[in-house]
Amino acid sequence: MNYSLLSFVLIIVPLAVIIVIVVRKFPQLTVLDVDNIPEVKAGRKKDEVLKKRVEENTEISKKNWLNKLKPATAKFGKVQTSFRDYVTKLTTRVEHEDKKVVEIKEAKDTKEDKEKKKLDLFSLIHDGNIAMNNGDYETAENKYITAIRIDAKNVEAYRGLADVYLKQEQIEQAKQTYEFILQLNPNDGDVLISLGDLSIEMGDNKNAIDYYQRSVLIDDSHANRFAKLAELLESMAEYQTGLVAIEQAIELEPQNPKYLDMLTELSIMTGEKDKALDAYEKLRMTNPENNKLSAFKDRISNI
């Protein structure tokens, strides 16, 4: 009797373990927020039906094997071998069915589906932009997040989401979102500027300088970016580099009185008397009402 009980245990325990492994091995198709993506909902339903079928087949097989155990204690090795063969075949069938589910989903991703996806994304981002401009940040956030669920690498959706966080003064969330955009597109100059401005707001001018320098290396057509870089460099007592930056801004906007003012100041700070005089004269002609002209003239004469 003890021998029969021992044989029963030796068979049923491996059997239970194998059943658990087979069920847990069943793969699932997962994407961002499955509950909201129809295609994946359909895939999940197919997976669940297949999984249920596997569990039912396994349960039936289990009962059949239990019925055979009573007279088969003397055939322990043969039973184990047969069941292992069954599990192997069952696992192969599950993997084959799962592959078919994936192939069906990919086949459905037709040109029309892609066009619809593109239109859905455009509509969501457009609606998000309108909501943000109207101050409805909650709606805007939801629109952008829904767009991201459709396309997890959509830069415009992330940009909108970061802007929403910025509008709500959720600085850390905005910063992290902008940084993620840079992972998707390291040459996004606008995002670099946004990160630079966030760094300024956080009192980190050194980091802000890095972001602004990277932005002007990518796109050197924005005078205001060079001017802001010059201002940041001046705040860090980097006068010589600041002078180079403001000269670049002047090349783009030669008559800008604010830039001429900065050029005069930085020329004086670096001891560049000729540059200072030239900048002073241009500033005097462009903005004769500037109340710093007299002080500039005196400081230049002392160089």
TrEMBL record:
UniProt keywords, alphabetically: Glycosyltransferase, Membrane, TPR repeat, Transferase, Transmembrane, Transmembrane helix
Entries under PROSITE patterns matching the protein: TPR, TPR_REGION
One GO MF term attached to the UniProt entry: glycosyltransferase activity
TPR repeats: 155-188, 189-222, 223-256
Protein name: Uncharacterized protein
Database matches in InterPro entries: Glycosyltr_41/O-GlcNAc_trsf, TPR-like_helical_dom_sf, TPR_rpt
Gene3D superfamilies attached to this UniProt entry: Tetratricopeptide repeat domain (1.25.40.10)
Pathway it works in: Protein modification; protein glycosylation
Transmembrane feature ranges: 6-23
